[in-house]
Amino acid sequence: MHPLPPRPHRDDVRIAVAGLLGGLALWGIGLAMNTGRPLGGAWLLLPLAAMAALELLRRTRPRCAVVAGTLVLVADQCTPGSLATVLMYTDLMYAGVVYGSPAAARRLPVTTGLVTVAATLGFLAWWRQPEAVLVGVMTGLVSYGPAATGALVRNHRDRAADARLRAEQTALLAEMDRAQAVTAERARMARELHDMVANHLSAIAIHSTAALLIDEPATTRTALETIRENSVDGLAEMRRLIGILRDSSGDTEPAAAPSLDGLGALVEQSRTNGVDVTLSLTGPTDGLPAPVGLAAYRIVQESLTNALKHAAPGRVTVTVERRGAHLEACVTSPYGHRDGPRAPGSGAGLVGMRERTALLGGTFEAGPAQPGPGGGIWRVRAVLPLDVPAPEGDPA
Q1: What does 266-323 look like in DSSP terms, one character per residue?
Q2: Inter-CA distances, 88 with 20, 58, 94, 140, 213, Å
Q3: Above 60 in pLDDT, residue 395?
Q4: Which of 40, 104, 119, 168 is least surrounded by CB atoms within 10 angstroms?
Q5: Going from the N-terminus, what domains does the chain have, and what CATH number goes with each?
Q6: Torsions phi, psi for 324 (to 5 deg)
């Protein structure tokens, strides 16, 4: 079953009706274009009606309308002819370029131009009179003129459509960049919040649990002192984070980002929280890129937090060494059975450390280094290059 042809556009219907009524009005007043034609009288109404019917196809079947309209125009030369018929043909030629295929839009102006030149030269050779040029001019006005005008209109529309498409693509790319920037900033702030607060909250959770389980005044007092110290430090870190988020012109100024110079204080804090930890810092730390120093500090901080929450009794070692164009941070801790209280973990710390390392183009590994039957050694190792620019969105 063949699909039904598309319905004519309402504007095409108006043009067809207007052309038909105009032609009837011209015929009614006796106005014709040709004299001495084989078919006279009302014969001009047949090409007029056929051309009006083809106007209904100017938008849906432009190629067929142009071909059939050309035949109708030739047939109209055998009748007195109507100006309305010629005008509707020029509209069909214009619509054939504007609404036709890209190939037709390219070919019609060239074809009609060649026909105009051929008609001019042909009638000059036949009549050998200057009036023959008028025939070529009329041919150009009827065929080439509408085709060239349609080509100009179509090119303008195509350029406008391309401009709209580029604008939409630009807007889409800008929205994608904005979404990626927001996602990256949210991930950065999530890492900062986790790394700054998790250590203190883990210590608070472990020592408060110990105070509840061990009903001894000395143990309770020591736990409360540790809880208070971590609460104050955590509050200071939160204020620093809020200072980063707020405008520096506000009432809260962001403090300087931590670096390797703060590892000693970080280790002392871990010892206060009950972790047996040693620190080995090898190589000069002056002149390190700020993002590298911050990443190494946060990786060590998160590793000590994990040791506080999950490590078995034993020594935790922190080694930070500068080797040529790389900085290596390594933290080892015992793992296995643990009698004391544990703090819950979500795995976000390892994800954050891996992300920090990846942003700087380094390598990261975490897992058992010396597995044993009852446990072993857990190692976190990150190698950070020193010759990379600061990643976008990370604090300097």
Answers
A1: HHHHHHHTT--EEEEEES--TT--HHHHHHHHHHHHHHHHHHHHHPPSS-EEEEEEEE
A2: 9, 10, 10, 15, 99
A3: no
A4: 168
A5: 10-170 (no CATH), 259-396 (3.30.565.10)
A6: 60, -115
